Amino acid sequence: MPGRNIMEGVVILHETIHELHTKKRNGIIFKIDFEKAYDKVKWSFLQQTLRMKGFSPKWCRWVHNMVTGGSVGIKVNDDVGPYFQTKRGLRQGDPMSPILFNIVADMLALLINRAKADGQIGGVIPHLVDDGLSILQYADDTIIFLDHDPEQAKNLKLLLCAFELLSGLKINFHKSEIFCYGAAKEMEHYYTIIFGCNSGAYPFRYLGIPMHHRQLLNSEWRQVEDHFEQKLSCWKAKYLSYGGRLVMLNSVLSSLPMFMMSFFEIPKGVLKNLDHFRSRFLRQGSLDKHKYRLARWDILCRPKDRGGLGILDLHLQNKCLLAKWLVNLLNTDGTWQSLLRNKYLRSKSLTQVSAKPNDSHFWRGLMHIKEEVIANGSFVIKDGANTRFWDDTWIGDKPLKNRYPNLYNIARDRHITVSKVMSSRPLNISFRRSLVDNNLREWLRLVAQVSNVVLVDGMDHFKWLLTKSGLFTVRSMYLNAIDTHPPFQHRKIWRWKLPLKIKIFLWFIQRGVILTKDNLAKKNWKGSRNVIFRGAYWIRFWSQLQRDEQAKDALVVMSKKLEIIALEISNGGWKHFFRLS
């Protein structure tokens, strides 16, 4: 859906679990498991739902003709039995099926909201979310929130059974899980009897993300590491060139943990292990061989025009993905934004808060990158309530504390907001001592600079300075953070029409790290220093060469030419050697 993100529900659930557990508030979380969701949908219920939502009769007929008429045959011992007509269900693989299923599943949310309006059930954390939180849905992943009340639990069970009869969907109560908090924890066994489900254990997964009321331990990240290592071991990398492994590394391996990285700040130990797997895969091609490392990993992660191979830096990418949440929190409104503002900001702005020991794992990750994000943007002032007068960039191209450092050093409140400063004239700022000489002149310039600022109704808008449009992109922040190295002198090689493995070989030559005899000696290589080729054939070759003086002279001339060519390459003579421009 436009303007929606699959991760929004993850944020809401994570923060709700953290709030219920840390503040010991009463509440129940019910994680529902649907049995073969697509195969159970009643066609009659789908038609009624479409008509109720305002779809035209023609559209309803189209949908009916599309979902009906299917036939199924059962295969037993390689023999396919007679085909029979289906009477319900949506077709797997049909691009319309997810949309139609969402329309059907949305009726469960409608029933729960009506029951909540009638007082039959109640939501949780009403102090953070208006009217309380009752249900989260993404396709067939459904979470229901319930207040601590056995009667409400019975009402919910009846409602779910009624929804089963109406829609045809079957709820696996014995596979569903319940989590109780506060006083409800003492009656958890009673609630499991009401719903016929099991007590849940942490961490549990929602949309593939592990949920826990505390920060995930390194051992709980092991599934990501195992998945990463499994992908490396099953690929036949030994049949790939260095260029092929580089392409695979960037296109596949780096995207495996990306979903987790867009939500959690990944521990350094986990990132170190993931980088170890990637480095070993790129260098060795297989896990049962050992090869020398030709360049440091941080050099390989630089952009190609900055002297690297363009491998994705997972730590930096993690920060950039988290930064997107901060910018959306500053500029947009929604359920998850309201929850975070009511929980952590209260009457303060985002720029005025910092990380606390009892904050959630998600929020601490945002706080760790907050200053870096704000430093790369500026605030478009509306009411001035969310912008710091001294610390944020809101007038000019840099913060006022950098433009007027003397005034900033003697200001009593260095974190005062623009709205409070502009509440009186000339400015509502107090200093620890009287302004004289240079300080007085700075004060007059400051008053003159902000005198034309007029506050209006509305929330301050955060503008991203690294893009022309002013909109945040993960790519712009990543390139800005990694673009700190000098340009690569021979970056033109990446534009040559050569196989990628040849370009990488030339890149290694330019860096002087090819495993020549002198470089091998630096790595304590244990091998012969005077015999290049070994074996019976080459022993006969060298013996014949010693007897043939003319062949020996020709070999000496050829070796000198190769030495000149190698010297020319190492000195950067690319055009003369390759005849390319």
TrEMBL record:
PANTHER family: OS01G0158850 PROTEIN (PTHR33116:SF87), REVERSE TRANSCRIPTASE ZINC-BINDING DOMAIN-CONTAINING PROTEIN-RELATED-RELATED (PTHR33116). Pfam families: RVT_1 (PF00078), zf-RVT (PF13966). This is Reverse transcriptase domain-containing protein. Residues 1-211 form the Reverse transcriptase domain. It comes from the Eukaryota. InterPro entries: DNA/RNA_pol_sf (IPR043502), RT_dom (IPR000477), RVT-Znf (IPR026960).
